[in-house]
Specification:
Layout (H helix, E strand, L loop, with lengths): L1 H6 L3 E7 L4 E6 L3 H20 L23 H17 L5 H9 L10
Antiparallel strand pairs: 1-2
Length: about 110
């Protein structure tokens, strides 16, 4: 993911693999860079998971990407917290008290890149 993000000038703040879907909190300057990043990243994930090779494609993704634009400040903090909750959920630990403790200790600070 980081290699593809660097290639398209995408800054990844948070990432969560919940098992059947992914959450990304990213910053881009141009829509085209986000589109190119998502296209390549989705292809790389599908290839790694299915073992597909050129000429023998396999169906992997069920739906299209869903996105939401958030402002800096409160919306960014909320989105960051949501993705972090999904990280915990992916490990079977979805617990708002644990998240609050991590935030208090500075471990879950929203502007830290993952």
């Amino acid at each position: 993911m980081q290699k593809t993000a660097q290639k398209y000038h995408v800054r990844v703040y948070r990432f969560a693999n919940v098992g059947n879907h992914l959450h990304l909190l990213v910053h881009v300057k141009k829509r085209a860079e986000l589109q190119a990043f998502l296209r390549e990243f989705a292809g790389r994930v599908a290839t790694l998971v299915t073992g597909a090779v050129k000429g023998r494609p396999q169906k992997f993704w069920v739906g299209l990407v869903w996105s939401k634009i958030v402002d800096w400040g409160r919306q960014f903090q909320s989105a960051s917290r949501y993705v972090l909750l999904n990280v915990l959920e992916g490990h079977g630990l979805r617990n708002r008290r644990l998240l609050a403790k991590l935030e208090t200790e500075g471990i879950a600070w929203a502007r830290d890149p993952c």
